[in-house]
Protein: Aminopeptidase
Organism: Petrolisthes cinctipes
Amino acid sequence: MTPGGPSLQLNNFVGQSEAAAVIMPEPKPFERLPAMVRPTHYNITLQPNLVKCVFQGSEEITLDIKEPTREIKFNTLELSLRDIKVRLGEGESVKPSSTDISTTTETATLSFDRPLPAGTATLSLSFSGELNDKMKGMYRSKYTSVDGEERYSAVTQFEATDARRCFPCWDEPALKATFDITLVVPHDRIPLSNMPEESRVPHESDSNLQVVKFSRSPLMSTYLVAVVVGEYDHVEDTSSDGIKVRVYTPVGKQEQGKFALEVATKVLPYYKEYFKIAYPLPKMDLIAIADFSVGAMENWGLVTYRETCLLVDPHNTSASQRQWIALVVGHELAHQWFGNLVTMEWWTHLWLNEGYATFVEFLCVDHLFPEYDIWTQFVTNTYVRALELDCLKNSHPIEVPVGHPSEVDEIFDDISYSKGASVIRMLHCYLGDKDFRAGMNKYLTRHQYGNTYTEDLWSALSEASKKPVAEVMSTWTKQTGFPMITVASHQDGDNRVLTLTQQRFLADGSAGDSSQWMVPISISTQEDPSKVAQELLLESRTMQVVLENVSESTWVKLNPGTVGYYRTQYPPEMLTQLIPAIQDKCLPPLDRLGVFNDLFSMVQAGHTSTVEVLKILRAFEDEEDFTVWSAVHNCVARLNQLLSHTDFHSTFAAFVRQLFSRIGQRLGWEAKPGEKHLDTLLRSLVLGQLGLYGDKGVVGEARKRLSAHVAHTTTLPADLRSPVYKTVVAQADEKTYEQMLKLYREADLHEEKDRISRSLGATRDPNLIQRVLQFAMSSEVRNQDTVFVIISVAMTAPGRSAAWAFFKKHYQELVDRYEGGYLVTRLIKYITENFTSEDMAREVEAFFKDRQIPGTERTVQQSLETIRLNAAWLNRDQQTIKKYLADLHL
Ligand code: BES
Ligand code: ZN
């Protein structure tokens, strides 16, 4: 989810028995809050102490008691509660006879001597807690003030289940209420919340403080409440539909908010038009937070971001980061409708939020920046990433039963995001834009301020389209995995007859189970490569299609545009017909990379030899399209991980150098005036590859350019920094390493710090590897960034074992530092999944056997499966790859 994060999984083959074991974590005992008592309104006052890093709060919650009850149960975690009482309708107050607080269920249960009558009541209480350093609940985020002093902001991050760490509440998405929020803050701090400020008065007893009250919110879920108190500057504008938009930045850096401001002010009216529903709040704030666990969070009216996901410094921000910022802003603003206005009933339907927002972020970036060709990039990132995870036996269905908070955390993964978005894209194509939009509008209008199940979306879309949406889509959301469509072809006079057969595709090449999907299929032919020649819905296991007047000497291709969420397996003759169309670029880019990527997945599953892919790779030497090259790069990177420990890795490196050399020559080091965005991205990809695989010319030039950069004679353009840093660090000695650290320390922009710290792992020197790992854990690197530095180390062969040893040694420290959650899950995935032997699989398995970090269980299973798939793949193809490469005499 964080940009540029490495996402290399390796898959593989038939009958490797251990890979077949699917050990799903046992569901943890969990109960939802009792339905007898529901909140309708919260009146909350919060007073963070930014020096002592604690906070005080008080609240009054209006309750609707549906039946007389002696118990009230709500969520609370790591808070001390005081002065609890309930005022009943007539004004009489009762105190609970006991308060039972459970840290396992994260609840408090108040018991009363006599039943509280049905009707309205008000629960009031005071509470206090710590502004923690775990980036959840209400926490502290560190910054340096203009005069160089270290200070803290108070910030909230509640999704999925951490509002309960800030104020006692009914912390479930379906329990929507209105919120009155009041903040008690020092005069010189900016207080922000979801709604605009309504009043501000001096505190009655402390002249340093003021009491700031915000307007009442609409009905909303607790996980979307937000508060920030700190020192910020801002830029602002009003969107064409009258919404006041502000981007808050660190003090003195408001210029860096301009890009996001421009995007946000355009996106709001775009969505208003797209959904045909106005943004319901009077203001929209976007704010950059120095310490932030995920990339960004869609709190209604106050969206919080990592600095790197919001701030653009025209001289130091790369084109790819700018593109990423546009996507993130588009994503979070999509949630303002999809997620905030209409919310999933329970976390099982999380994908409705995340899958949909991931789809829509591309729609809106395509609208704002057509030159990004963003839909093509969707395929190389989002779509391919989903298929790669989803071919594991340890994948899971999009809709997954979850209860306990740690299970909820775990589903913020590539299935909810990337598979979710991919199946929505497929559906969008199946329904057509007009019906899709009409259905969306029905859904959002019908359920606004309410909650939904996945089925509610299907009903609205099928009403609008008159197509069997629920029937088709439930095969994609309720089953794990996806089909492989096997094609057979014969000629019948002038007509070509295809026989299509579906079967679950599994990474180990085994036949899979009896799952079947309803698959919207389209077909293109050589006559007009960019046109869909035929469309059909594959509803059974197998089906015949007649293509009229299509000769046997021309190519036929499934899945034009790579929209269908499936793999295609062609017979050798059909594949052979497609190769020239790749080479002469008659096939559109998305189809070139689609054919290639499907073939690579067949290789990983053992249906075809890796050598077939190496042969086809050579057909790409003249390729010019960025997205096709990034598909090639994905494949090369996986092979590199697989082969990194073999005795012929240097031959493989020579092969890759040759593959990228022509395009490297063509692009050169200097950006052409007014060149295309995608060429800028391509240059950085290609030079990075040539540098990584040790092309002498590129290594020399990178050194030269870095020296000039360090000496302040010629500044490296932001787009070239990452490839140059990595190239130089890969060969670095102590002195160069020190130089990189100096650059890191001098860097003011977070993006630049990330770029440097994530390059350090490229070193192969055992001593430097240890230094990088220690640096990752030092106070110089924020907790939010530590894991990415360690992951960068794990991307090389010597680094991988070192990172694993380091992880084992610092296991407890890491667990305590993050207390579970998304960052540790990422760390475990990337440092383990690239191992390639059964021995390592056993070691990783043994390590996690008695150390289960809640929320990482499934990730561990997926990694084990992947390691075993790697091992089988290597065994299977190692010798033939070696011979093929040797025979090339590179
Ligand atoms: N709702 C999520 C933030 C989130 C993620 C909360 C994980 C809790 C756990 C937000 O909308 C989101 O998806 N953020 C992404 C960025 C997005 C552009 C893919 C992220 O943080 O990486
Ligand atoms: Zn999201």
In short: The longest strand covers residues 37-49. The chain has a mean pLDDT of 95. The chain is about 40% helix and 20% strand. The longest helix spans residues 857-887.
